[in-house]
Amino acid sequence: MKCVICKNGETKNGFTSLSLERGVVIIVVKNIPAEICENCGESYFSEDVSTKVLQEAEQRVQESSSLHSQVEVLNYAA
């Protein structure tokens, strides 16, 4: 697909990382399948992947709050 950010590059299947922050908790999710622009590097996630990442992150934020953890690094699992 054509990148909507740079409008020049085409996207290719690949894997990327995403950092999410809420309050003092930072969650880094690695190895997320995505369409990545070969020109500017912008990543696009499918609806299913986005939903799964956000649900997992929300669960980890709740767990981290009770454990007083500030940074958590996860690997995406299909």
Keywords:
27% helix; 4 strands; alpha+beta; 78 residues; single chain
Description:
By secondary structure, the chain is of the alpha+beta class. The protein has a domain at 16-32 and 45-75. The protein is 27% helix and 41% strand. It has one helix at residues 47-67; strands at residues 11-22, 25-37, 43-44, 71-75. The two termini are 23 Å apart. The model has no long low-confidence stretch (mean pLDDT 90).
Please give the oligomerization state of what you see.
single chain
How confident is the prediction overall: mean pLDDT?
A: 90
Find the structural class using helix and strand composition: alpha+beta
Count of separate DSSP helical elements: 1
Low-confidence runs (pLDDT<50, min 5 residues)? none
- Profile the largest sheet: 4 strands, mixed
> Strand percentage, roughly?
35-45%
- Distance between the amino and carboxyl termini: 23 Å
* C-alpha geometry: elongated
Helical residue percent band: 25-40%
Radius of gyration from the alpha-carbon trace, in angstroms: 14 Å
Sequence of secondary-structure elements: EEEHE
- The overall strand count is 4
Q: What layout of secondary structure does this protein have?
A:
Layout: E1 11-22, E2 25-37, E3 43-44, H1 47-67, E4 71-75
Parallel strand pairs: 2-4
Antiparallel strand pairs: 1-2, 2-3
